[in-house]
Fold this protein.
Amino acid sequence: MRKFNYLLGAAVLAAGFTVATSVSYAKPEYTKTEKAKCVVCHTKGKELNKVGECWKESKNLKECEEKEKK
């Protein structure tokens, strides 16, 4: 019975970590080349904001940020 309680606790803990952690979809090489954090282009997860959509088309972050400021 004691083993069952430990296994049940471990399963609940593992499920909690799985649900509570967020997944990163941005590629690390993009953040290195553009010298910007993921949140510049992404809202949550895979969803792109306006700057992200612009970068997807032009592959130039500075150009997209200038458009966003105007």
Remarks:
- The radius of gyration is 19 Å.
